[in-house]
Design a protein that fits this description.
The chain contains two helices and four strands; from the N terminus they run ββββαα. The protein is α+β, with helices and mostly antiparallel strands. It has a domain of 58 residues. Bound molecules: zinc ion (ZN). The site of zinc ion has 8 residues, from loops.
């Protein structure tokens, strides 16, 4: 997968963050096994370098807050079904 970096940095809102692989804002889902948030469509985690860079998800930034929010409000990773590619 090749990341596509948007021209502007993105600020995560609630459980939404910018996915550089989907090139869209996605509602992230919580993966209990990995203990982190993932894009339900492509499966990338918020520990991906480009995801962190675009969304400002560093430990002194939005990371802990975003992870807590997704854990509380997001869907569970397992229950998420990726849509078929067209
Ligand atoms: Zn994605």
């Amino acid at each position: 997968m090749q990341p596509k970096l948007p021209e502007q940095k993105h600020t995560p809102k609630g459980i939404k963050a910018w996915c550089v692989y989907c090139e869209e804002e996605r509602e992230f889902a919580w993966d209990d096994r990995l203990g982190t948030a993932r894009c339900p469509f492509c499966g990338i985690t918020v520990y991906d370098f480009y995801i962190r860079q675009v969304n400002g998800l560093w430990h002194d930034g939005n990371m802990s807050r975003f992870e807590r929010t997704v854990q509380k409000q997001g869907r569970r990773w397992k229950s998420v079904k990726a849509p078929k590619k067209t």
